[in-house]
Amino acid sequence: MAFRFFEESAHVAAYLQYRVTPHELINKIIDFMGPKLQNKFNLAVDVGCGNGKGTVLLAPYFNQVVGTDVSPAQLGLARANSIRQNVSYRQSPAEQLPFESSQVDLVTATTAAHWFDRPRFLKEAERVLKPNGCLALLGNMMDRALEYGDATRFFFSQINK
């Protein structure tokens, strides 16, 4: 079951102030994806986008970027601060993304995946990702193992290079 926090206006303001903005991670993701997709990046989805700080960082690299979140208050703040034409936001849970199968080049979750129903989210990410698409998760909790087929072994081999 996904948890629903940071929805009240005071929580939304605090979240905006303290949420991580992962500039370096975005560069690593793009470097990793480039050869796999011949540097043709169409659609990125930032799941659990909150205030959109991480979502807008993807805009220079993709034709379209969509941030999703369960919180109307978070999405309201994201929309109010959005200045990129190719960025939009949709309300949805992480486990039920509003995209057709094999449509998305990149699915990210920046300090949000620990709130998701992990098995359902991973299955949903796999559904929406194109072949050679990428799932990138950034979290501040290292006490959880992420296991999903061969992905775990591959991830750790790539991150330690």
Number of H/I helices: 5
What is the strand tally?
5
CATH architecture: 3-Layer(aba) Sandwich
Sketch the major β-sheet.
5 strands, parallel
| Number of individual domains | 1
Question: What is the mean predicted local confidence, pLDDT?
Answer: 80
Order of helices and strands: HHEEHEEHEH
Fourth-level CATH superfamily = Vaccinia Virus protein VP39
> What's the CATH C level?
Alpha Beta
Radius of gyration: 15 Å
Taking the alpha carbons of the first and last residues, their distance comes to 34 Å
**Order of neighbouring strands in the sheet with most strands:** 3-2-1-4-5
Fraction of residues in H or I helices: 25-40%
Beta-strand proportion: 15-25%
Instruction: Give the CATH topology.
Output: Rossmann fold
Structural shape: globular
GO molecular function, one term: S-adenosylmethionine-dependent methyltransferase activity
Organism: Hippocampus comes
InterPro entries: Diverse_substrate_MTase, Methyltransf_11, SAM-dependent_MTases_sf
Pfam family, one: Methyltransf_11
